[in-house]
């Protein structure tokens, strides 16, 4: 009669089943977190791109008006060509610095940083070896969730 080994087999099968179910749930939760976080990151990136698109026309209109006004003021000292060149260069530098600032802000945003940290924590937990329990030589020892040990002698009875 091998009742002990049948119970052990069912216990191991149940443990493997629970482990597979838990791993499946973990992967599903990671995918859900990644999906939500990707949507949030895409929304923030879209808002940054929209703000750049909104401010580009203001930059161009401001460039035209300020160029005209400053060129009119500077024209008596540098001539119209020199005045237009100075005003145009100043506005290009200002607009370029504003766009560079927005681009740096977009590059500094960490995409999916929560998902990456959670995945790293899960991988660390899965790859860490559990502490080994020393068993008597020739005896298979399994422990259930309560910590009680099942011992099977060599002959399987």
Give an account of the 3D structure.
This protein has 157 residues and is mainly alpha-helical. It is 77% helix and 5% strand. The protein has 2 helices and 2 strands. It has helices at residues 3-108, 113-127; strands at residues 140-143, 149-152. Strands 1-2 form a two-stranded antiparallel ribbon. Helix 1 (3-108) packs antiparallel against helix 2. The longest helix is centred in the middle third of the chain and has 106 residues, at 3-108. The model has no long low-confidence stretch (mean pLDDT 77).
Runs with pLDDT <50, length 5+?
none
Binned strand content: 5-15%
What is the total tally of β strands?
2
Main beta sheet strand tally, sense and closure: 2 strands, antiparallel
SSE succession: HHEE
Rg, nearest Å: 34 Å
Overall pLDDT metric:
77
Strands ordered across the widest β-sheet: 1-2
Amino- and carboxy-terminal Cα gap = 7 Å
Query: Could you say which overall geometry the principal axes of the C-alpha atoms support?
Result: rod-shaped
């Amino acid at each position: 009669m091998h009742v002990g080994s049948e119970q052990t087999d069912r216990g191991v099968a149940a443990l493997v089943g629970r482990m597979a179910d838990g791993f499946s749930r973990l992967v599903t939760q990671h995918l859900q977190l990644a999906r939500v976080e990707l949507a949030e990151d895409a929304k923030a990136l879209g808002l940054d791109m929209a703000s750049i698109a909104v401010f580009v026309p203001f930059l161009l209109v401001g460039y035209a008006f300020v160029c005209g006004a400053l060129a009119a003021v500077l024209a008596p000292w540098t001539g119209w060509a020199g005045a237009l060149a100075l005003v145009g260069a100043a506005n290009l530098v200002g607009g370029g610095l504003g766009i560079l600032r927005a681009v740096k802000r977009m590059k500094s945003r960490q995409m999916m940083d929560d998902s990456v940290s959670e995945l790293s924590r899960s991988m660390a937990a899965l790859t860490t070896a559990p502490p080994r329990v020393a068993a008597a030589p020739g005896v298979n020892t399994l422990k259930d969730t309560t910590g009680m040990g099942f011992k099977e002698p060599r002959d399987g009875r």
